[in-house]
Structure formats: structure tokens, C-alpha cells
Amino acid sequence: MKYLFGGLLLLIASVLQVTLMGRFSLLAGTADLLLLVMLTYMLQEDVRADWRWGIAAGLMVDLSSALPIWVSLAAYVGAAALAQLLETRVWKIPLLTLFGATLGSTLLIQAVTMFYLWLNASPINFAEAFNLVTLPSMLLNLLLVLPVSAVVSEFSKLALPSEEIL
Amino acid sequence: MRTSGPSPLQTITLILVAGGLLLLALGGYLNPVANAVLEPLLGAQGWLYTRFQTMQDFFSASSDLAALRLENAELSAENAQLQTDLIAAQQQANEIELLSALLDFARARPQDQYQAAAVISRDPSPFLQYVIINRGSDDGIRRGMPVVAQGGLVGRISQVTASAARVELISDAGSQVSVSLQPSEVDGVLSGSLTGDLGIGLISQDSAVQTGDLVLTSGIGGQYPANILIGQVNTVRQEATELFQSASVQPVVDFSRLEVVLIIINFQPVDLTPLLDDSNTSP
Q: What is the DSSP letter of B257?
């Protein structure tokens, strides 16, 4: 049930990401709602952090993105693994874990994407990409992570009885 | 005891008095007297009428209040319905305006055949400028077909499924379009960028490019039909130390507000891959 619910949350986040979130940009950066939902769900107190959530998120990104599947899978599995690692290291401070995971995951996903574009000979300027895309995206993600966490937590409590949340 | 009627003298006196009074009234001499009599009478009438009206209002207020509340509720509901109708009408007007613009574009290029499609999503990665449309190979859409909207070039189909297709916008960093500037008749290559801005490069140094020049597809390379409007030259950058001039372009299409697009379905892009493949080059 928890996996089904988590998958449903990711699916909803994926749809919102491609329809709504792209319209709200800061410079050229946008918030990654799918990443935030994945992180906040897997980092909840009663949910076990697992890097395999990254596979589900990566597959959903692949449905709507022009990036090849290996890029989205590598980016989101890496992000989930980083969150899993952080949870085991700083498990006593969930808020720090959440912010750290958001910051690190955003950087990781953008770095993987830029690496792919560089391999693909796209004419990108890394300094410009960092200033105009990565930094604004990071800021938006950090601003949104707490509200998203609250919403995901409330939905989880409503949808799953406490004993079912593992 | 004998009773008798009024004497003729009394009758004549009464008639004379009445006639005199009548003449005085007609002459306006009795007005002060009439005013003096009528004024208190009218005052009394007004006082009585006001008190009666107040009492009537007091006793009928409860039924009026209920009626007013009912009427207020009905008017509020009607107002809400009218607001909804107004919003719907505004949306329809916007759609009509959009479709009219597309129709105008289609009429301006009668040699092309079009398939309309709605934009249903955008690429989740901020590094990529792609949109997904709700028409696919089942509707005759093929890879490489040019996409236009509101009088300007949008991009081309990069990937197709049965019921949807992905469009690479010309604002994508990986997009390149051969363009011609009018009226200066200069050729160049239009490229997108990470921020979605458009720029033209490879303009020879001796060309006279000016701000305000129109940017149209040149058709060179066979990837797009010729003479599709892209935008207008915004700024020109010319430095003696560089091989080429460059220019920034203001597109006619607002890529952030794409809703409906047209796909030119009778255009077949030229496949240059065999020419570019080194292994096919004869020694």
C-alpha cells in the first residue's frame, strides 16, 4: 500500500511538474516538484528511505522529458541514494536531512543533465548554466521543500493508517 | 304658528354675496384667506399621512425583509452566474483570437497543409525547451515536420508516438535554423540558448544588418520551409576582432504561452545524414 501510495504521489507530482511548474520560473530555473515529493515522502519519519524510489521518479521523468532514460534514471536514483545516505548519517535532525538532500539532489540532477548536454555537444556555457538555471532552481526547491513536505505528510496520514506506514 | 320660506330679499342678498365672493376668488383677492385656512389643514394632513405610513411600514416590515432577502439571494446568484458567463465569454474570445491568428497564418501560406494541435505539457528539465502536443503518428505527424503558431516559427517535431509528439522549440540550446534577414538579404544561423533567448550568428562582417530587420527562415539545409517569420533583430553586435557579426532576435511567438500550434504536414525535411557521414566519403 505504501509503495502504491508513493507511486501515486509521484505520478501526481509528475503531471503537475510538466503542466504547471514549468510556467513558474526564476530566471531560467524552475522548481522540481517531482524531486521534492520523492524526497519528502521517502524522508518521512515512518517511511524507509530507499534509493529505488529514484527509479520510479526517473521513469516518470522519462515519460515527459527529451532527456534519454539513462540520464533521468542516473539523476533521480543518485538523488534518492544521496537522501538515503543523508538519512542514515544525520537521522537525528530530519530538517537538516531534508534541506541537505534537496540541495545535494538538485545539484546532482542538474550536473548530470549538464554532463549529458556537454556529451551531446550542445553549446552551453557552464557558468551561465550555473548562474541562470542551477542556482535559481536550487533556491526555488529550497523555498518549496517545507510546504511540499507538509502537504505530503498530511496526505500520507490521511491515506495510510499509521501502522501501515513502514 | 306659520312658517314661511326665505324672503326674496334674503335670496337676492345671498346670491349677491355668493356672486361677490366668486368674483373676489376669481380676482385672486381671497388667496390670503384660503392660504390661511389651507396651511394648517395641509400640515395636519401631512403629519397624519407620515404617521400612518410609519405604522404601515412597521407592521409590514417583516414580510418586506423576507422578500428583500429572497430578492438579494436571487440577485447574488444571478450576479455569480453572470460573472461565470463573463469569464467563459472572455476565454472564448481569447480562443477565437488565437484561432483567428492561426487561420490568418494558414491563409497567408496556402501552399502548406496544416494539422492543428494543442500543447499539453512542457519538458520538466529547465535546460531543455521542448513541448509535447496532442497529435501523433495516427494524425499523420512525422519527425522533422515544422511547427508554427501565431504567425511565426515554433520549432520542429523531434519525436513521435501514436497520439502525441515532442516539439523541439527554436529557443532550445541545441536548435539551429538557417535564416535570412530582410530587407538586408543577409544569411545567418539562428540558435537558441539555455535561457530561451534567440541569437543569430555567422553573419559576415561586411553585411549591413540593422535593428528591426525581419528574420525569416531561409530554407537552406532543407530542415524548414523558406520564408516563415521568426522575429525581428533586436540588437546587432559587431566587433572588428571577430570573424562574424551576431544579433539578438525578438521572436514573434511567445514560447512561454504556447497553447495551440500548427504542424506543416506536407513538408518533408531533407535528410543530410548520408552526406555528413565520413564513411561514405569517397577517397
A: G
